[in-house]
Amino acid sequence: MIGYAFMGAAHSQAWRSAGHFFDLPAQARMTAICGRDRTATEQAAAKLGWASVETDWRALLERDDIQIIDICSPGDTHAEIAIAALAAGKHVLCEKPLANTVAEAELMVAAAQQARAQGVRSMVGFNYRRVPAITLSRKLVAEGRLGEIRHVRAQYLQDWIIDPDFPLVWRLQAERAGSGALGDIGAHIVDATQFIVGDQLAGVSGLTETFVKERPLPTASSGLSAGADSDIKGAVTVDDAALFIGRFTGGALGSFEATRFAGGRKNAIRIEINGSLGSLAFDFEAMNELHLYDGTSSPETGGFTRILVTEPEHPYLKSWWPPGHLIGYEHSFTHEIADLLADLGNGVDPTPSFEDGLQVQQVLAAVAESAAGGSRWQALPLVAAASSAA
Amino acid sequence: MIGYAFMGAAHSQAWRSAGHFFDLPAQARMTAICGRDRTATEQAAAKLGWASVETDWRALLERDDIQIIDICSPGDTHAEIAIAALAAGKHVLCEKPLANTVAEAELMVAAAQQARAQGVRSMVGFNYRRVPAITLSRKLVAEGRLGEIRHVRAQYLQDWIIDPDFPLVWRLQAERAGSGALGDIGAHIVDATQFIVGDQLAGVSGLTETFVKERPLPTASSGLSAGADSDIKGAVTVDDAALFIGRFTGGALGSFEATRFAGGRKNAIRIEINGSLGSLAFDFEAMNELHLYDGTSSPETGGFTRILVTEPEHPYLKSWWPPGHLIGYEHSFTHEIADLLADLGNGVDPTPSFEDGLQVQQVLAAVAESAAGGSRWQALPLVAAASSAA
Amino acid sequence: MIGYAFMGAAHSQAWRSAGHFFDLPAQARMTAICGRDRTATEQAAAKLGWASVETDWRALLERDDIQIIDICSPGDTHAEIAIAALAAGKHVLCEKPLANTVAEAELMVAAAQQARAQGVRSMVGFNYRRVPAITLSRKLVAEGRLGEIRHVRAQYLQDWIIDPDFPLVWRLQAERAGSGALGDIGAHIVDATQFIVGDQLAGVSGLTETFVKERPLPTASSGLSAGADSDIKGAVTVDDAALFIGRFTGGALGSFEATRFAGGRKNAIRIEINGSLGSLAFDFEAMNELHLYDGTSSPETGGFTRILVTEPEHPYLKSWWPPGHLIGYEHSFTHEIADLLADLGNGVDPTPSFEDGLQVQQVLAAVAESAAGGSRWQALPLVAAASSAA
Amino acid sequence: MIGYAFMGAAHSQAWRSAGHFFDLPAQARMTAICGRDRTATEQAAAKLGWASVETDWRALLERDDIQIIDICSPGDTHAEIAIAALAAGKHVLCEKPLANTVAEAELMVAAAQQARAQGVRSMVGFNYRRVPAITLSRKLVAEGRLGEIRHVRAQYLQDWIIDPDFPLVWRLQAERAGSGALGDIGAHIVDATQFIVGDQLAGVSGLTETFVKERPLPTASSGLSAGADSDIKGAVTVDDAALFIGRFTGGALGSFEATRFAGGRKNAIRIEINGSLGSLAFDFEAMNELHLYDGTSSPETGGFTRILVTEPEHPYLKSWWPPGHLIGYEHSFTHEIADLLADLGNGVDPTPSFEDGLQVQQVLAAVAESAAGGSRWQALPLVAAASSAA
């Protein structure tokens, strides 16, 4: 695994736990973790449960005892590492966004396609697909329970940088992060809604805004902790918020919003889907619930049903606790790792694929271009997914 | 009062009730109701409590015992009646939308301005401003409790025409209704959010869609009742749904959606406002509640507070029941009439003014134009409101 | 009508409105209102819409232009007025509780039975039966949708006397009010749950408590307004809270709680019913909603369905607004009056009957006796209802 | 660890995870797991991560490489194992209920007190105290934020045995389980509410019921899986539901209900506390939320605040994910183990103590005795807790 910050901790818990809850054709050994600073990486290895440490990711590719590379480092490093790892015959799990640019993502897809021919597999880490309520949503839509989809309404709302004195961390710098709210969290709702609907955006019109134009420079690599770190300010070069509307190829209308300035919303991924036969509503802040409206029910007793997604009949839940005993955020990663290991063991390409990651990247680029050009419509190419969809 | 359908019934209950709950400088007498069909209008007069009947609205203008004209007929009749009534020296309450076109609305504003000089007053019926939770929202924003406004998120979701066999009623015909979801319900969220924020939209980019292109012709004036009325179909000439994004003059981003195809959402007017210091959230399906986030509170106990807007300290509530005893939809009209009568008694221009109605019409027109032109940005003129804002 | 305080205002709005929304065999004329103080009563008559004024309730009984007596005065006056009115051949609507004691209630039932033989009818005003969500609950249980009822869980939570300086108003004096939370609000949940279940309590075990033993005497008849009215304190002689558990004759267990000390709960009537086939949940603070669990549904999509009780298929709703347009507290009274007028017009005995009122009184008395005697079990007589149940 | 069913799996995940998230003075090694059947236990050891296997719990006590015994077997085995383990100088974590009878629990307390003098420590596993929202509740009450406590309202609602064909598993047999809903889930709400309030029940009056008197015998040890296992039926010897009301020593009234027959409620632990200054409400089905009412706030903006208990300022949360990223059921065990290891490392007695477990057992016994004796009041002894309370 490369990287040991927030995503590294979440992935490690998943690697440690997957085999204890799921029957898998292969078990994972947590062989090595890689970071630039040896001392810090050794501490992380001890804390997170990795057997050895490397300080250059290239060293991982040379080791025979490593078969899977899990890339949790910032977006500007993904392309180089992933392409090299695939070339070295290592399976790759790459955190989203796949890359910071469409061009990089295209190179990664090419590498993935070449590797795939050799049985070397790749996956991009849109973990929210494995939140059981979202996996269930996909199943219900695929079964036709909602009929023809007319509306997709999705918001990813956070508030962690409302304070204008919050420092200029790497996620607020375009050269490291690619974009702001758009790529960091907008990417998740683009992927999750396309996954649920089983369809792709055909075009978009967007707006972006940076509310706080300058922020204090962090004195050290201060991570996510708030507080003015310095008297010197630097320019925020990414968006604080991105809004867009669009059309899906199947005819549905989409309304999307990603922002880090929605006070009081901490990690509110809110998705609503309206179809000709029914509707779905989800909010990650109540991630064990799915609200389903069956439009064919009697008006006398119809309405949104709050499904507590903790039954053994629900995706992934049979491996956990009895009904009513909730699961949490990190379980989405445990499911991701369990599915990845199952697919690798069974010789199947995992999803979402790098092609799926590229397609999301294209949507994000189209939104950015529309926003830069008077919100004018940006048509999107239809991407033939390699192996996506449930 | 002209018209006796849904709006007519709601207004009549308001005219009957306002004086029983509010201390008003003047009491209203419900003198005459007007409709084209004498028999039906007489039945309506009896049912709704009006003392006499007219079948030509011009007759109302000639009567000395009538001082206020309440226009509840379809949008294509508003301009002619309102302009004539103002010219005849009658105060006018006109249901929204003010008119079906910007041009008509401009003529009405001119008439209102001329009349105002003579002490003849006018008001447009955006009743949701008088839902106490919305009136309270305006108060909290005006007091600066939310700080600088960054996000406005508004949806008006209904589902009453999802059934493709629902007939082609007048609200689905452009020549009568002007537009579909956009003007009928989109108008309400444009007005309500601008009212709450105390600001205007500066530009928009929009999309509209008609999901069901043809519908059975109604055999008679079948109103809102569902069911295939005829084998012959006619073209639906209005939008089923309208989405748009925009910017307010003060810098806030806006995301709007109006649809009649959101299965399971019956009259869901959902408004969220995020500011630098706090947030508000409202859903008309729980119209007695307002959810307020105070961003200055301690993280340990912070969160959205569910305010049950039934305290005597809340707008209009002192006139109703003890705390926790809810009020309903029609109370918004009772408040509207009470305020109108108070303003007329006190010699004050009521709000929202015809200017406010025109400004909303301009927003709707800009959305329609953007939608027709590849979602490209439409800048809006800044309208100096005659007398708007709380 | 006798009395013009909170209940008088609610009843008056109902008398004024019922005929405008419901097709009734007879229309009501609001002939006279009665209060002890002439000036105050005349003001109330003007405000509430009554045509004349009396200062002695006996005068009402002598008037030929009055056919119905609506008793909204405190509980200690009910028996005398109701018995005299029935004897005078007037139909009687009596606010709950029917009386302050079982003995009085028994006399009233005897009077009602005698009058009934003459076609003179009587009704006790448990208005919450006519909240549509509760009426619908009764219908669903009666249809067997919940199967055999196992649990009844009901709370009536208020907080208006938490402040120890709130004055000693008549509702806190045993000689006027009979009891405190038990009779005032506990009576409502006893009636509502028995009505929904279609069954009676067979026995109870209870606890009561008076948290604040002394309060300032009100300087005048200060009504419900808070604030220390006097330096002199008097003893609170009623319960602040009453809890009890019990068994229904059909085997269900019941858990009940009525309190005026539940901070933040304003008028929270919360009812849950669990049966062998399903469950219901209701909270008056969201009175337009009913939550229904269908235990026969698939675990994959099962859960509580939030029914927005505003469809034309729902009880009383066809007379009001389109779906999603909420109604309020006072509508329960409008429904009560509409049903009463319909029953009188059709020559039918209205419900709930005085027998129903007596039975509730017996439950309250049993709770009080159990609470006074170490919570020991109090068996209840089975009352054969004259005409109760829908 | 002894036992490897539901509790065994939950505890194992906690033992595996605690050190990866919390900075602990000592790390745990998962040395041995014990079960009667060697094959099944070996499978469990592999699945759950234990290094070795024993089939007789006495063997664990003889091993020098074991310092802590974690008892997850049924209640009728707790006393013997715990007493022997403490005598052998092993620290003991014993799942709740502490024992099946007060007599056994008293012996265990005596053993714990003796061992404590030797530095051998003990803890009873009321894991819900370590759900962060409940830990936070305790903190807020202890700080006086709710003032004087007046009402405690607690329900533990499940529905897993509603089906009359669900088999007669050990939890439905008095000789194994001691009692039914009362001891299994009622114990949790007794402990949790006493913990939050920092007070003990002084007396109770109760009711219990067994709705389904006979059930099919399980053909094998069929665990919790539903379905008729046999044509032969056996008597259910425990309660299906238990209700009780009571008084706390500090004057608060308590209302409690534990049932396995609340259709649609899967693991609904609902707790409400009303005090003179504020209120708290919690539902385990939304376990990351706490609803707090501050009675000192302005009526204009007062109400229940939904605290999303995922901030670094909240108990245990700094060790997990960023705000808005939820945790799940098993995290309560991870917190329990982390606190236990910290206490052992720091030479401190952990809580809840065996004395706390005994006191809960006494409440349960008093409820059962009251229920058996006409609900008459049962006074409770005041137990001086050894080391309880935060």
Q: Nutshell version of this structure?
A:
The first copy, chain A, is an alpha/beta fold. Chain A has helices at 6-21, 38-48, 57-62, 78-87, 102-117, 132-142, 174-177, 181-197, 331-346, 354-372, and strands at 32-34, 52-54, 68-71, 91-95, 122-125, 149-157, 201-209, 214-216, 233-235, 241-248, 253-259, 268-275, 278-283, 289-294, 304-308, 378-379.
How would you explain this protein's 3D organization?
- 4 copies of one chain form a homotetramer.
- Chain A has 390 residues and is α/β, with parallel strands linked by helices.
- Chain A folds into 2 domains: 6-127, Rossmann fold, CATH 3.40.50.720; 129-379, Dihydrodipicolinate Reductase, domain 2, CATH 3.30.360.
- Helix content of chain A is 32%, strand content 22%.
- Chain A contains 10 helices and 16 strands.
- Chain A has helices at 6-21, 38-48, 57-62, 78-87, 102-117, 132-142, 174-177, 181-197, 331-346, 354-372; strands spanning 32-34, 52-54, 68-71, 91-95, 122-125, 149-157, 201-209, 214-216, 233-235, 241-248, 253-259, 268-275, 278-283, 289-294, 304-308, 378-379.
- In chain A, the strands form 4 sheets. In chain A, strands 15-14-13-12-6-11-10-7-16 form a 9-stranded mixed sheet. The first copy, chain A, has a 3-stranded parallel sheet with strand order 3-4-5, sandwiched between helices. A two-stranded parallel ribbon of chain A has the order 1-2.
- In chain A, a hairpin with a 5-residue loop joins strand 13 (278-283) and strand 14 (289-294).
- The two termini of chain A are 27 Å apart.
- In chain A, 62% of the residues are buried.
- Residues 221-228 and 386-390 of chain A have low confidence and may be disordered.
- The interface between A and B is large, with 43 and 43 residues.
- Strand 15 of chain A pairs antiparallel with strand 15 (304-308) of chain C.
